[in-house]
């Protein structure tokens, strides 16, 4: 179920793009840049859903805070309200940070996705359908409908992301209810800048992961999973309910169990997970350390799996010596 679960980490980008078709130094990897830190920062879980605060000091010894809201990128109306403290912290923060910057969403996203798709058109006379089994072709046709002919002319990642989007919409999840979209909206309304933890290229790399054969295998696995919709739906709803209840342990367990199951299923997913989670979590931990050293109040909103499952951002903050 990897590709349905990972959709919660990328669907914000997918839903926006596929609608076109329908003073501190940077920490080094060994933590040497933070070795001079006199006291470690303190991590606190707030009462609000998936909301943490890291309290430390800046390079001048003054109080510094990074507030982290673990989000879910698609949801329904039950995800609201976010909580008065969350909104107050967002409103008063000196710096807002998301997975990708607001500038990228508003100015660069659509063009970048379209460029990627143009690069990934298959040669004349070739489509992905001949590489799928009869049952997989049937499943893909039932999901994509009249878009099948068009989307099958691209490398498999395009069909995979389209299927993810269609599936999540079909079970009642919508990016318009996503926590990220709401906060981006607040930022626009209040004229606030939102920085990015990732570059747009990093996010696109998630969508376009692997060569043709790898992408094809991921698509096949997704279609096979969707042939058993009861199991997929049960997992997704369990994850969402755990998120709504602020059950950090349960969210982490569901995500980690799925990672382990898919890594057992295919070696593809071990490298995929490293790229999707570990590499990015490590890079985010280094950025958070920078924000603490620079001082002020930073508000970060990003996918909750990065803070709950496996080698989380908090895990890498501890390895850096920040926590």
How would you sum up this structure, described in words?
- It is a single chain.
- By secondary structure, the chain is of the alpha/beta class.
- The chain is built from 15 helices and 6 strands.
- It has a 6-stranded mixed β-sheet, sandwiched between helices.
- The longest helix has 27 residues, at 268-294.
- The radius of gyration is 20 Å and the shape is globular.
- The two termini are 33 Å apart.
Helix and strand arrangement:
Elements lengths: L1 H4 L1 H12 L23 E4 L5 E7 L5 E9 L12 H9 L2 E4 L3 H18 L14 H11 L3 H4 L4 H15 L8 H11 L4 E3 L3 H8 L4 H15 L2 H16 L3 H18 L2 H27 L1 E8 L1 H4 L4 H8 L3
Parallel strand pairs: 3-6, 4-5, 4-6
Antiparallel strand pairs: 1-2, 2-3
Helix pairs in contact: 2-4, 2-7, 7-10, 11-12, 12-13, 13-15
